[in-house]
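batch job 7 of whatever, protein = LysM peptidoglycan-binding domain-containing protein
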Amino acid sequence: MKKFSTIAAILVGSLPFASSSAFAAPGEATIAQAQAVARSSKCAFLPDAPDKHVVVSGDTLWGISSKFLQNPWCWPQVWGMNKEEIRNPHWIYPGQIVYFDRANQRLRLGNVSGNGVVGGVPTVKLSPRSRVEGLGANAIPAIPASAIEPFLVHPMIVEVNTLERTPRIVAAPESKVNMGQGEKTYVRGDLDGGTSFQVFRPGVPLKDPDNGNIIGYEAAFVGTVKLAREPDDNNDVYTFNVVNSKLEMSVGDRLLPVTPTPILSYVPHPPEDEIRARVVSVYGGVSVAGQNQIITINRGKEHGLDLGTVLSLQRYGEVITDRTDGNRKIKLPDEQYGHVFIFRLFDNISYGLVMQVTDFVKVGDVARSPQ
């Protein structure tokens, strides 16, 4: 698979996300190279792609890509984005127009007010935009924010090595069993300098389909607490106040630091290196998932995944007996039926949003680099 840094830029200076200085020189990024990328089996344009699309509020980058490309994850290659632009892109805003330059098999970005025409494609003067780490006001997201927002704020998954070192609730005042908002709770463990924490309750163990090992736990969000008093010379117990509670807190519940809301600055793209993962679970304890539902896979940051990675979903080919060849055991091919968009990463597990499926996702299915 080509790496992003080697994908030819599509006409330096006409890119929507970054200045021309971030891309290859014109001699290295020709229209012929752009056409080769756009015409590849992976990154072909749809035969009925529109001439243009006016960006409106509610659009997503994936949705716009789907109007022009057979594979929406080809967006970075068609625009000629390198790895840095994928991580921190300039964003598209309502009122702008994505034009399809059919002659050169590329896309351009313009504004509604543009009226110049070059080669049959309207051209506009783009106002400079400051590079930002997150979404600007009204900028369109990569995927529907409402589908993933709860999974960006609360832990939801806790890996085994993290669980072992998290502080824990050991008691409540007056020997209470449960604690609610406004009450105190006592905690032991290493706070690592933190003062505000989310409280979670370890739930269903998540097992790696490849080897059966437990690689994490689904975490039920319980509430938040804030440090009220440090331990004194006679004990090692911290006193916390319960700030809010979704569920009643109990002895044994665990604490994780409150982290800022993650920045939604990513673009759909295939992984840089070859990835072959398996579906570990479907969120909510159900056995199958459909469009816009959340799944976990048994690969994460340590395997080279990053935010916005798109993987193909394939039904894991079963092992059968070939009765035509002495009852030899053979594995049938994996069959592709959709994609998953990775939006939150842990070391060895990732959350993904199910995209464009023609079948239900099942635990054990394959998630791999698009072929």
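notes: The first strand starts at residue 52 and ends at 54.
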